[in-house]
Amino acid sequence: MQGNKLLYGLTLASGMLECLCFAGAVFGYASLVFVLKVDGYFSQGCVSIPGTNNTLENCSGQDEMFSLVFTIASFLNNFMSLVNGYLFDRFGTMVTRLLGIIIVCDEFVFHCPAAYSELLFPALSCIAVGGILLLLTNIQVGNLFATHRSTIITVYNGAFDSSAAVFFIIKVLYEQGISLRSSFVVLSVCSIIHIARTFLLMPKTHIPYPLPQNYTYGLTCGKANTYNVEKSEKMRHGETTASQESNTPPAPVEETEAQVMSFRSCVLSWFFLWHLLWLSLMQLRHYLFIGTLNPMLNRLANNDPDLVSQYTNAFALTQLCGVLCAPWNGLIMDRHKGKPLAPGETDQEADLRSSFLSLFLTSLQCLLFSVCASIPLLPLQYFTFVVQVLNRSFLYGGNAAFISIAFPACHFGKLYGLVMSVSAVVSLLQYPCFALVKGPLGGDPFIVDIALTLLTLVVFIHPVYVFIHCRKLARNRADNTQTETTGSFILAEAKL
């Protein structure tokens, strides 16, 4: 048992390192853009302004190409999650991780020179897709720690957000004379960490929930205590043998109810639809902010490169705090653990009731972030950066945790992939928004920012729906309890 605890601890710590240093580097794109501009990427998009002796340039074309690179990469980051989720549910952890490692290494090994700027499109896309595969396989580590499951899921997502600081470190090293190619080669060599974790500290298939007694994996995994996923799936659908029926204790009521819920019924439920809208709208707001941060800072700083660099560094440093903010959300969602349930309440209902506060606070943070980002005041952006990283940590951690709570574990990969994929289609709206700002609006994003802020109000529907649902369940339990009590009293009177 002590050996299992050590194995679980190593898996947790190494997974944190993996998410923190590699998985979400794509979201540090603003720092990378600063370096790429210095190296002359997409410089053909800059044209001299007539009448200025070629001393001033209009680089809106360059900014548009950089925005398009991020739009496509962030789209694939989420859209491919549908395929990734199916692969994870169907083939397990090892196959999914090896695919992610191959994709990440393909990007890190080649770094294109400025003459081939278009190669940035597949390069950044590989970072995005490979990173999300690593995160997807790490989310299940929360199953090893039942009482802190949501906290660990949110912490991993926070580490994913904080890995945006990788490009900030590359920017700092570049300013010290270390080339981009050298930095990416070092990152590719570090992929040996992913390979070691895949074979030593991760299961071949999945980590089950709830966890079987004496469950092991990695090198210590043996036939006697290996969890058979296919057997579990058959048991979920009633395909048990006579000996299993006689020797296996009945599953808890809440687990059985979740097991009979089909994938189609999950997708068509109001829980899923409102959650999808909740994630999509807030993600669009964040993606547009990250993708247009560099031109926004240039506009507010009057194209002062030193000032733009200062704010870019500040933004990158705040991303490091994602891993510190994420546990707050997990603690909010796990605050009911260890406390007695209400009469007739199931564990899933208690988890849903606890998730309402997390969903509401995430929506409120996004509204505040959107309002601050809409105000064209440069010093205020320091506060905007803080609220932004706090909200992103709550958003993605809460997304994964809510799906694991509200729906059966056997559909987690597919549902997580589907919600990320559909939200990716919505995130494509960031590019027409950027084109609208650069074109008809003359570079002033105020109208677009206000429109997105008003649209953010829609996300409050999701926490309100969850709250009403939980209140309805509590009212029904109270009515049933009262009916049973009345019936017992009448029966006792009759006997007298």
Automatic annotation (TrEMBL):
Listed GO CC annotations = membrane
Main subcellular localisation? membrane
Query: Transmembrane segments in this chain: where?
Result: 7-30, 65-86, 122-141, 153-174, 180-200, 267-290, 356-377, 389-408, 415-434, 446-468
- Report the Pfam families cross-referenced here: MFS_1
PANTHER family named in the record: EQUILIBRATIVE NUCLEOBASE TRANSPORTER 1 (PTHR20765:SF1), SOLUTE CARRIER FAMILY 43 MEMBER 3-RELATED (PTHR20765)
Query: Region Disordered: what ranges?
Result: 233-253
GO MF annotations for this entry? transmembrane transporter activity
Q: What is this protein called?
A: Solute carrier family 43 member 3a
For this protein, the record's Gene3D superfamilies field holds: MFS general substrate transporter like domains (1.20.1250.20)
What are the subcellular locations of this protein?
Answer: Membrane
